[in-house]
Design a protein that fits this description.
Layout (H helix, E strand, L loop, with lengths): L2 H31 L6 E5 L6 H17 L3 E5 L6 H8 L7 E6 L1 H10 L11 E10 L1 E6 L6 H10 L2 E5 L5 H13 L3 E5 L3 H9 L5 E5 L4 H5 L3 E6 L25 E8 L4 H14 L3 H8 L4 E6 H18 L2 H6 L4
Parallel strand pairs: 1-2, 1-3, 6-7, 6-8
Antiparallel strand pairs: 3-10, 4-10, 4-11, 5-8, 5-9
Helix pairs in contact: 2-9, 4-11
Length: 332
């Protein structure tokens, strides 16, 4: 074969190569443009009835409308939402399996378990968008302490107790951070659910109760409980008279947040489409009304900003969790 013929053959093969590249890229773009072409699973790491389930179903309804395919909520409880997170982290990154990420199975889990966590946060996920932030609250019986300052003053004079979901839960960890900042010693009493904890609080068996606020707000509205203070950066519009802990000199701002994440490696075109649909869904008036009525707030925080928020939230927990606190949770 002459040099001229070799050169012509090389040019021909280069042409074929670039044509194949163009066809592959076009096919991939077309595939992403057709997304979704079947139902999407949204895995929630808690049973029906809780905040994660409520907000998951609210956004699933909106995404179904925006994307033209059913978004089906799948409840997979266990290990504080970590079983669900592990399942999604190992799922195919094709946009058809999403996780309702929460501070409990993302930020807090990463902060207290580190390398023992069966998935990496945020490395094993791609952030789609935050949905909701719900503050934690300190509650007392309605005829008890008028404000948080009075409760903490009493705690310095005698031994008080508070109910929570128990060691390792977001409520327990956050209240222990509050105690450390306030310089008070209040004994934690673990409960399985808020119902028994509130019963004991109203019966005088415990002095205070600390939990994510929205599920408890009905008791406040009914006049049975008093909300003394909330975490978060600012007061909640639903209860504007209630101060944040930061306002009373206790700099604890962590909240229970909820947001969508997908397995790492999910194509960016799919992530961006999901993120746009989330942003549009969060503007729905009915969704906002339901989210806000008990003190939570919708938060439109897409992709990269949401990922950075998760990273910063892990740092906030790590800064507030002492070795002594880790020992109470039996985390090494």
């Amino acid at each position: 074969m002459t040099e001229h013929m070799r050169s012509a053959a090389t040019r021909a093969w280069r042409g074929v190569y670039w044509l194949l590249c163009i066809l592959v890229c076009a096919a991939a773009t077309a595939a992403h443009a057709e997304y979704p072409d079947r139902p999407i699973r949204l895995v929630v790491g808690f049973p029906p009835g809780g905040g994660g389930d409520l907000y998951g179903r609210l956004i699933a309804e909106q995404l179904s409308r925006k994307l033209g395919q059913p978004v089906v909520v799948e409840n997979k409880g266990g290990a504080g939402g970590m079983m669900a997170a592990e399942q999604v982290a190992r799922s195919k990154p094709d946009g058809y399996t999403l996780l309702m990420g929460m501070s409990s199975n993302m930020s807090l889990a990463a902060a207290i378990r580190g390398k023992d966590l069966p998935y990496k946060v945020p490395e094993d996920f791609v952030a789609v968008g935050m949905l909701v932030q719900a503050p934690h609250g300190l509650f007392a019986a309605a005829d008890s302490y008028p404000n948080a300052a009075a409760a903490f003053t009493a705690a310095r004079a005698r031994q008080l107790s508070y109910g929570s979901s128990g060691p390792g839960s977001v409520g327990y960890v956050t209240m222990e951070m509050v105690k450390a900042k306030a310089g008070v010693d209040i004994s934690p009493i673990p409960y399985r659910g808020s119902g028994p904890a509130i019963t004991d609080l109203l019966g005088g068996h415990t002095d205070l109760f600390f939990a994510t606020a929205p599920p408890i707000m009905g008791q406040v509205k009914a006049g049975k409980l008093r909300l003394l203070a909330l975490t978060g950066e600012q007061r909640t519009p639903a209860f504007p008279e209630v101060p944040t802990f930061r306002e009373i000199g206790i700099d604890v701002t962590v909240t229970q947040w909820y947001g969508l994440v997908a397995p790492a490696g999910t194509p960016d075109a799919i992530v961006q489409r999901l993120s746009r649909a989330v942003s549009e869904g969060l503007r729905n008036a009915d969704l906002r009304r339901i989210v806000r009525q008990d003190g939570a707030l919708e938060v439109d925080m897409p992709t990269d900003k949401f990922r950075q928020y998760i990273v910063d939230d892990i740092a906030r927990y790590r800064a507030g969790i002492s070795d002594k606190l880790l020992k109470t949770m039996e985390v090494k």
